C-alpha cells in the first residue's frame, strides 16, 4: 500500500517536472514556431512579410537564452542537488581616476552614470557565456526537451483518443496513457546530464575566473609583503641601527678618555654594554615577528607547542608526528594559529583552548577551539579577514563557527603534501 | 675549569674563548657543528661546555640535540646552552632528565663577564643557570590552581630567583634581605608546594624546576 502511494507520488512529481522541462526547453523553439506561423499568416503575397518574424527570432532568442539557462540551473540544483557554476561575467567596481574620468573595467567614461551604463551593457552582451547559452538552447529541444515532452504528449493523446469513438483512436488513447504514466518518473531526468555537459563554464571561462582569482591573490600578497618589508626596514632603521651608532659613539669616547679619565671611560663602557643588550632585545622581537626561530629549527608542530606554552591559557596541542610542510605554508599556518590564540586571549574570555594539526590525505588541517564566549566573526573584522587572505594564497580555506555563547571553532585547511 | 665551546660563528667563538681565558679558565676544545660537538664532548668530558643552539649542517637545533644526546650518554654532563632566543620548550627538554647541571641563557649573558663565569661555575658544580625570561614564563603559564597562587608576592619572587639557579645568599643580595629571611621564605614556600626542603641547594632548585615543569603547560 505504501509502495503504491510512493509510486503515485513519484509519477505525480515526475509529471510536473517533465512539464516544467518541456515548457522551459521548448520556449525558444516556440518563439521560432510563432515567427513561422506569423509569416504564413501574413501570406506570401506581402513582400515584407518576412520582416516581423525575423525581428522576433533575432531579438527573442538572445534575450530569452539567459533566463532559460538560469531557470535550468535552478531546477537542476533544486531537484538533484547538482550545482552548475554559471561562469557569467561579474561587474567590477567603477572607480574614479585621478584624471576625473571613470574607469569601469572596459574603458573610460566622463560620468559615473555613463560608466555604469556602459559597463552593464558590456557585461551583459560582451560575455562569451552568451554563446554557450545559445548553444544550450539549441541542444535542449532535441534532447532533454524532447524526452520531457513524452508524458504531456501521452496525456494529450489519451484525452484526444478516448474522447473519440472507434477502436483505433481509443487504443491509441490507452497506449498514450500507459506511456505517460510509465515514463513520467524518468522523463525529466535527461535534463541533468545535458545541463552539466552544455551549461558548465567552458575551460576558457574557468581559466579566466582562475586568473582573476590569482590576480587578486597576487595583489594581496604583494601589498602585504611590501608592508611587511617596510615595517622591518623602519624597525631596523629606528631601532637597532640607531642604537649601534650610539654604541660606536660611546666606545669612541671611552677610547679617548681611557688615558685621561678611566672612571668616566668605565661608565661609558657600561652604557655601551647596556645599549648592546637593548638592541639585541629589539632585534629579538623583530625576528620573532618575521619568522620565529623555533619554527625554523623545529617546524610547525613544535613551534605551535612552544607557542602554546607561551600563551597565558591552558592550551592543549594534538598533532600527527613527523608533519613537515613547505616553509611558506608552515609560516602562514603558524601565524594563523598565533592570530587565533591572541584573539582567544584578548576577546574570548576563555579558560582553555585546543589546537589539532593533522594531514587528512588532501592537505594539512589545523583546528583551533576555545571554550570562550563566541561571536568571533562579528567581534574581530580585520584580523580574521587578514588570516583568510594569508591562507587563500595557498588555496586554503578558513571556516569559523562561533555562535554567541561559544565555543569558537576555527578550521584552516591548506591542500599540500606532507614530506 | 676545562671548558668546551661549541659555536659556529667564528667571531663569537673566538670572543668567548678569549673571555673565558681572560677569566683564568682553560678552553680545551672548540666545535662548530652539531656532530662535531657530540664528538668533542665524548672525547674531552669537559667540566662544563658552552653550546649554541643553532648550528650547521642543518641550521636547526643541532646544538641542543647534541647537548641532549651527550647527556643521555653521560648523565649529568654539565652543559650551558646559549641562544639568541629563549624558548620554554627547549628549557623543558633540558630539564626533563632531572639531573641538573644545565644552563639555558640568552647569548647576551656573556656581556657581563662575572655573571657569565658565575653561571658556568654554577653549572659545572651541578647547579642550574636559567634565563629569567624562561622562569617568568614557567611561573606565569596558567599558574592558577596549581599551588603557586597560594604563595605571597614575596615568596614568588624568591621562587623565581631560586629557579634561575641562585643560592640563598645571592637571592638575599638581589632582594636586599638577609640570608636567614630567605631561608624562612623558602621553608614556608616548600611547605605550601609540598616539596621536601633539604639543605642541598642544587637538589632544591631542581625540585622547584621539576615542579614548575610538571605542572605548567
TrEMBL record, chain A:
Domain Signal transduction histidine kinase subgroup 3 dimerisation and phosphoacceptor: 230-294
Catalytic activity: ATP + protein L-histidine = ADP + protein N-phospho-L-histidine
Keywords per UniProt: ATP-binding, Kinase, Membrane, Nucleotide-binding, Phosphoprotein, Transferase, Transmembrane, Transmembrane helix, Two-component regulatory system
GO molecular function ontology, one term from the record: protein dimerization activity
Gene Ontology terms: cellular component: membrane
Transmembrane segments: 20-42, 48-65, 138-161
All copies of domain Histidine kinase/HSP90-like ATPase, residue ranges: 332-416
Protein name: histidine kinase
Keyword hit for Phosphoprotein: yes
Any single Pfam family the record assigns to this protein: HATPase_c
EC number from the UniProt entry: 2.7.13.3
Top EC class, one word: transferase
From TrEMBL, chain B:
UniProt domain HTH luxR-type: residue ranges: 144-214
Modified residues (4-aspartylphosphate): 52
One of the protein's GO biological processes: regulation of DNA-templated transcription
Molecular function as annotated in GO: DNA binding
Natural source organism: Streptomyces venezuelae
Gene3D superfamilies (alphabetical): 3.40.50.2300
UniProt keyword terms in alphabetical order: DNA-binding, Phosphoprotein, Transcription, Transcription regulation
Pfam family, one: Response_reg
Superkingdom as given in the UniProt entry: Bacteria
Protein name, as recorded: DNA-binding response regulator
Ranges of residues in domain Response regulatory: 2-122
Amino acid at each position: 500500500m505504501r509502495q503504491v502511494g510512493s509510486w503515485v507520488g513519484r509519477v505525480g512529481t515526475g509529471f510536473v517536472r517533465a512539464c516544467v522541462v518541456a515548457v522551459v526547453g521548448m520556449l525558444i523553439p516556440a518563439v521560432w514556431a510563432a515567427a513561422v506561423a506569423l509569416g504564413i499568416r501574413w501570406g506570401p503575397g506581402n513582400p515584407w512579410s518576412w520582416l516581423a518574424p525575423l525581428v522576433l527570432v533575432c531579438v527573442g532568442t538572445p534575450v530569452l537564452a539567459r533566463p532559460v539557462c538560469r531557470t535550468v540551473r535552478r531546477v537542476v540544483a533544486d531537484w538533484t542537488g547538482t550545482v552548475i557554476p554559471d561562469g557569467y561575467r561579474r561587474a567590477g567596481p567603477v572607480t574614479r581616476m585621478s584624471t576625473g574620468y571613470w574607469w569601469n573595467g572596459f574603458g573610460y567614461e566622463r560620468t559615473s552614470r555613463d560608466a555604469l551604463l556602459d559597463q552593464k551593457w558590456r557585461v551583459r552582451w560582451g560575455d562569451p557565456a552568451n554563446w554557450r547559452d545559445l548553444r544550450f538552447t539549441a541542444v535542449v529541444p532535441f534532447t532533454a526537451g524532447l524526452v520531457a515532452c513524452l508524458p504531456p504528449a501521452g496525456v494529450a493523446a489519451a484525452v484526444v483518443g478516448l474522447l473519440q469513438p472507434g477502436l483505433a483512436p481509443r487504443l491509441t488513447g490507452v497506449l498514450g496513457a500507459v506511456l505517460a504514466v510509465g515514463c513520467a518518473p524518468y522523463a525529466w531526468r535527461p535534463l541533468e546530464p545535458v545541463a552539466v555537459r552544455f551549461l558548465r563554464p567552458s575551460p576558457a571561462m574557468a581559466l579566466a575566473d582562475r586568473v582573476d582569482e590569482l590576480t587578486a591573490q597576487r595583489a594581496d600578497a604583494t601589498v602585504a609583503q611590501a608592508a611587511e618589508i617596510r615595517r622591518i626596514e623602519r624597525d631596523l632603521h629606528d631601532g637597532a641601527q640607531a642604537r649601534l651608532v650610539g654604541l660606536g659613539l660611546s666606545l669612541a669616547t671611552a677610547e679617548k678618555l681611557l688615558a685621561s679619565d678611566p672612571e668616566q671611560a668605565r661608565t661609558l663602557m657600561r652604557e655601551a654594554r647596556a645599549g648592546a643588550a637593548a638592541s639585541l632585545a629589539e632585534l629579538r622581537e623583530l625576528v620573532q615577528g618575521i619568522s620565529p626561530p623555533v619554527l625554523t629549527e623545529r617546524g610547525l608542530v613544535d613551534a605551535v607547542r612552544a607557542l602554546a606554552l607561551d600563551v597565558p591559557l591552558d592550551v592543549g596541542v594534538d598533532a600527527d608526528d613527523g608533519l613537515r610542510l613547505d616553509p611558506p605554508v608552515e609560516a602562514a599556518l603558524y601565524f594563523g594559529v598565533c592570530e587565533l590564540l591572541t584573539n582567544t586571549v584578548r576577546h574570548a574570555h576563555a579558560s582553555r583552548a585546543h589546537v589539532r594539526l593533522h594531514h587528512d590525505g588532501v592537505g594539512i588541517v589545523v583546528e583551533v577551539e576555545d571554550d570562550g564566549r563566541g561571536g568571533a566573526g562579528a567581534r574581530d573584522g580585520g584580523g580574521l579577514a587578514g588570516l583568510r587572505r594569508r591562507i587563500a594564497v595557498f588555496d586554503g580555506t578558513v571556516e569559523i563557527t562561533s555562535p554567541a555563547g561559544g565555543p569558537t571553532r576555527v578550521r584552516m585547511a591548506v591542500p599540500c603534501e606532507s614530506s | 675549569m676545562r671548558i668546551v665551546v661549541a659555536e659556529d660563528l667564528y667571531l663569537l667563538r673566538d670572543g668567548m674563548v678569549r673571555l673565558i681565558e681572560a677569566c683564568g679558565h682553560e678552553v680545551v676544545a672548540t666545535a662548530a657543528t652539531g656532530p662535531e660537538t657530540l664528538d668533542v664532548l665524548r672525547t674531552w668530558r669537559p667540566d662544563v661546555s658552552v653550546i649554541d643552539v643553532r648550528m650547521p649542517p642543518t641550521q636547526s637545533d643541532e646544538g641542543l640535540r647534541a647537548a641532549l644526546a651527550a647527556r643521555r650518554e653521560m648523565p649529568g654532563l654539565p652543559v650551558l646552552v646559549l641562544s639568541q632566543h629563549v624558548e620554554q620548550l627547549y628549557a623543558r627538554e633540558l630539564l626533563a632528565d632531572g639531573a641538573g647541571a644545565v644552563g639555558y641563557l640568552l647569548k647576551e649573558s656573556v656581556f657581563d663577564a662575572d655573571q657569565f663565569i658565575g653561571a658556568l661555575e654554577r653549572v659545572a658544580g651541578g647547579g642550574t643557570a636559567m634565563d629569567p625570561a624562561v622562569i617568568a614564563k614557567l611561573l606565569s603559564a596558567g599558574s592558577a590552581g596549581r599551588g603557586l597562587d597560594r604563595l605571597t608576592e614575596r615568596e614568588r619572587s624568591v621562587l623565581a630567583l631560586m629557579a634561575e639557579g641562585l643560592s640563598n645568599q645571592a637571592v638575599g643580595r638581589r632582594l636586599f634581605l638577609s640570608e636567614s629571611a630567605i631561608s624562612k621564605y623558602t621553608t614556608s614556600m616548600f611547605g605550601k608546594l609540598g616539596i621536601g626542603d633539604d639543605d642541598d641547594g642544587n637538589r632544591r632548585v631542581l625540585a622547584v624546576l621539576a615542579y614548575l615543569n610538571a605542572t605548567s603547560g
